[in-house]
Design goal:
5-stranded mixed sheet, alpha+beta, globular, 2 domains, about 350 residues
């Protein structure tokens, strides 16, 4: 049900009334208007502060009835086809896909938009819905009130990522057009912009900043790289025409291999194997299963699975022998036991 039609064909672009929008989110018009009032919806908002990467983030997100409305709005907005340069929020698009756009480039530029969600105001949302979807002002205003808290997009709501991507689509489209005019590759992961190519002129960087500022936002964390060492894009490294995992991820592999080597009991072997396979599978997903590293990882994972199966097989054989009270079996009996073991599900 994701990305079924262009923006112009969505129900939001068919001149909906407030009653139409209410029906879309399974509410009636009066109750939806009530949910849009600051005083009433406060009872459905959770406010808390979390710390990520050494920074405090103030979350304001809906629960209960208001969350259900946000989820339904998200469901319908996700049916709108997004531009190819956008990789998140989108279903079946990964960080690897985002990084792959920039393989074999020589120069890279990364920057993000400061306070992207909190900077997306109620007014921006209302105006964008009215202009892009052709909504009546009262309908656009109703959605904007329901979708925001403290006059801003709810930081932590399931609705905010897709809503913000649509609200700011004109800005991202303008950036995309500029990149195309310079012959540069570009991608967007939420609020992280990555641009790459043979050469990124200084005038281009100034123009990017100007575009972002013209939409009432600010860019920061601008970083410029050349391709003579690994460049990491949304956590995935690019080295020439290859994708690589971060060094700490590779170091974690060594720890997990050590844990498997030191495992003694069947439970320890099973736990260590499961963790190592999951970790190596994550690296393989980054580097690509068809790459040389990916093929090597596939062989390693196959070998690990075989060793786990062997451990299970030996344990099952021991249990059967103990249950039978047998210590020595004739060759014929041994073969019969093996057939019994082979028939067991592992």
């Amino acid at each position: 049900m994701y990305e079924r039609y262009e923006l112009e064909r969505s129900p939001f672009a068919q001149k909906p009334t407030q009653r139409d929008i209410a029906a879309l989110v399974r509410e009636n018009k009066e109750d939806l208007n009530k949910l849009g009032t600051d005083r009433f919806k406060e009872q459905f908002l959770v406010r808390r502060t979390i710390e990520t990467s050494g920074k405090e983030r103030r979350l304001v997100y809906p629960e209960a009835r208001l969350r259900a409305v946000h989820e339904r709005l998200k469901y319908h907005l996700n049916k709108i086809i997004q531009p190819s340069y956008l990789f998140s929020p989108r279903k079946n698009r990964s960080q690897r896909d985002n990084a792959e756009v920039h393989l074999s480039a020589f120069q890279y530029l990364t920057l993000d938009i400061k306070q992207f969600y909190p900077s997306t105001t109620r007014r921006m949302i209302r105006n964008s819905l009215a202009v892009q979807f052709g909504m009546a002002g009262d309908v656009a205003g109703l959605i904007a009130h329901v979708a925001t808290a403290d006059d801003r997009a709810c930081f932590g709501s399931p609705l905010t990522p897709v809503l913000a991507s649509l609200v700011h689509r004109p800005m991202f489209d303008e950036i995309s057009d500029l990149c195309v005019s310079y012959g540069l590759s570009h991608s967007i992961w939420v609020d992280d912009l990555t641009i790459s190519g043979p050469k990124i002129p200084g005038a281009f960087i100034a123009e990017i900043r100007r575009i972002i500022a013209s939409y009432g936002l600010r860019s920061h964390k601008l970083k410029y790289y050349t391709g003579n060492k690994a460049v990491f894009v949304t956590g995935v490294g690019i080295v020439g025409s290859n994708l690589v995992a971060k060094k700490k991820v590779e170091l974690r592999s060594k720890e997990l291999w050590r844990a498997l080597k030191n495992a003694e009991t069947l439970d320890e072997i099973d736990t260590a194997t499961t963790r190592l396979l999951a970790h190596l599978g994550g690296i393989k997903q980054i580097v690509g299963k068809s790459s040389k590293r990916g093929q090597k990882l596939s062989n390693e994972m196959h070998s690990i699975r075989q060793k786990r199966e062997k451990a299970f097989r030996k344990n099952t054989e021991r249990l059967i022998n103990e249950a039978s009270g047998l210590r020595r079996l004739s060759p014929e009996e041994q073969e019969a036991r093996r057939e019994e073991i082979d028939a067991l599900p592992f």
